[in-house]
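Sequence decides. Our protein:
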Amino acid sequence: MNVIEKTGRTTEEAIEACLKELGVTRDQVIVEILEEPGKKGLFGIFGNKPAKVKVKLDDDPGSLACKFLKKLIKAMDVKADFEVFRREDHILINITGSDLGILIGRRGDTLEAIQFLTNLAIGRKLSNKIRIIIDVEGYRKRREDTLIKLAKRLAEKVKRTGNRVVLEPMTPQERRIIHTALQNEWKIATFSEGEEPHRRVVISLKRTNKDVS
């Protein structure tokens, strides 16, 4: 965490000097007032002491992400709150509120865009990259459950008919859910084909040595 101390005639002047040197804005730092201006010097004979502040660059990814999201969502004229959950390999931010469908979009397209922008913005400010997953009112969990059920149902259809099934275009994260849901189906194979953003999952029967011969 970058830390810097500065003095100034006023507290704000000292803070601004710190922000200028760090090259950041006020909402990206934690400010600690070390000395207030106007106090007398030693024994009161050396005149007024300047203000002294310590500014720490806030490099907590969850905090930075929430600050970015607040600005982004405010620009969309949406009011919302944020819940931050720290996981082993990522940070989950769940956005809560009312009438948040605009943040999800058609099949989660808007939500994916918000997540992409958040990771891009925060990644530029951090030396240690960490993945940030954005959710809205638990949408991703509901979508995951739906996709797992869909994958199981289509796998049974493939077993029954022998014909492969091509799903609708999905995001990399959603394709991963399908692959994971069927990875233990010994008769079923899954793979992706096509180019982004039209890349699709294909569910088919697993080829055997007999099929190859």
The chain has a mean pLDDT of 88. The chain is about 40% helix and 25% strand. The chain has three domains: 3-57, 61-137, 141-212. The helical segments are 11-22, 61-75, 101-104, 109-123, 139-161, 172-181, 209-212.
